[in-house]
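Q&A FORM
Asked by: J.P.
Topic: structure of Trypsin

PROVIDED:
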Amino acid sequence: MRGVRLLPAVLALLVITATPVHAAPRIVGGVVAEAGEAPWVVALTSSGDQFCGGALLGPGQVVTAAHCVDGRPPASITVVGGRLDLRTGDGATSAVSAHRVVDGYSTPSRGKDLAVLTLAEPMPYAPLPVAQSSGVYMGGSVGVVYGWGRQAEDDAVKSPLLHKAHIPIVPDAQCAAVHPRYDAVVMFCAGYPDGGIDSCVDDSGGPFVIDGRLVGIVSWGVGCARPNLPGVYTRVTTYLSAAA
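REPLIED BY: S.T.
REPLY: Here is the structure written out as tokens.
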């Protein structure tokens, strides 16, 4: 894994289980990403249909949410890179040869919602460095989330264009007050008090980025962009560390 190392004893071989009923949880209020600004963003597809996002850790490895791959054989997943508009044939594709999830993962709301995919063919795009310090999770810090998901909670159709949105991190105490299962060791929240801007369905696994470094992964939430209900993200620095 170029540029990234896994922290000891946090990943194990995937055990195939039933996919959780809330496995496509929480871009709403965002804008279309510009060409070249996020070369490390990838789409996870199955039979040609996008179902989650991810980010390149290196040419042959992708980080995404555990719930995106839980219950899916690796061979059933194709990763698409360098393609802002999924209706085109731009970019590169690779089958997934293997995937691993964090040991003890069960459902997104219980945390540990992270998986690393091994690609059969390397991607020719720059990887996304991992954040180096837990200080990035300070309340009020603004990150950018990317995804091809739905643009409203009640949308029946998702966007074929990669979107992004700037969202502030919510202090842990505020998040715990609205999400009883919130665990600040493995999660963080981001959102606006008035709602309106958020990640949404099919954005799962997509990256949350601050200052050009991976900070979080879209994990779960209650609806999309609802007031006083921030989305919940996997706290990446708990599981991944930048290489020395």
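FOLLOW-UP: The CA atoms of residues 29 and 170 lie 18 Å apart.
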